[in-house]
UniProtKB/TrEMBL annotation:
<comment type="similarity">
    <text>Belongs to the catalase family.</text>
</comment>
<dbReference type="GO" id="GO:0046872">
    <property type="term" value="F:metal ion binding"/>
</dbReference>
<dbReference type="GO" id="GO:0004096">
    <property type="term" value="F:catalase activity"/>
</dbReference>
<keyword id="KW-0408">Iron</keyword>
<keyword id="KW-0479">Metal-binding</keyword>
<dbReference type="GO" id="GO:0042542">
    <property type="term" value="P:response to hydrogen peroxide"/>
</dbReference>
<dbReference type="GO" id="GO:0005739">
    <property type="term" value="C:mitochondrion"/>
</dbReference>
<feature type="domain" description="Catalase immune-responsive">
    <location>
        <begin position="45"/>
        <end position="86"/>
    </location>
</feature>
<protein>
    <recommendedName>
        <fullName>Catalase immune-responsive domain-containing protein</fullName>
    </recommendedName>
</protein>
<dbReference type="GO" id="GO:0020037">
    <property type="term" value="F:heme binding"/>
</dbReference>
<keyword id="KW-0349">Heme</keyword>
<dbReference type="Pfam" id="PF06628">
    <property type="entry name" value="Catalase-rel"/>
</dbReference>
<dbReference type="InterPro" id="IPR010582">
    <property type="entry name" value="Catalase_immune_responsive"/>
</dbReference>
<keyword id="KW-0560">Oxidoreductase</keyword>
<dbReference type="GO" id="GO:0005777">
    <property type="term" value="C:peroxisome"/>
</dbReference>
<keyword id="KW-0575">Peroxidase</keyword>
<dbReference type="InterPro" id="IPR018028">
    <property type="entry name" value="Catalase"/>
</dbReference>
Amino acid sequence: MQLPINCPYRSPDAPNYYPNSFNGHKECPCSGESKFHVTGDVDRHEFDDDHFEQPRIFYTKVLEDEERARLEENIFNSMKDCLAEVDAGFGNRLRKMIDNYRAEKVSYRDF
């Protein structure tokens, strides 16, 4: 039994976001982005393409050995089959390439 107070007012099973796969609610064209006039420089900041410094610091200086191992295992478990989901042959070829790369890397270390 559903009490009227707990009943949804509209669209009992539709998600309240758009776009969605149910084609329920639509974006209202009159409620677009607000526009504002700007003159001159709004903001200046330094920019570089270094996307690896922060993760490197986190991995090497913040995490302990056990935490690193858990992070590595979690990433591996999340990604191990994702390329095969695209196409089994694609996943197998990339897996072979990674295995070959690892084998070459190990053989170079032996010398």
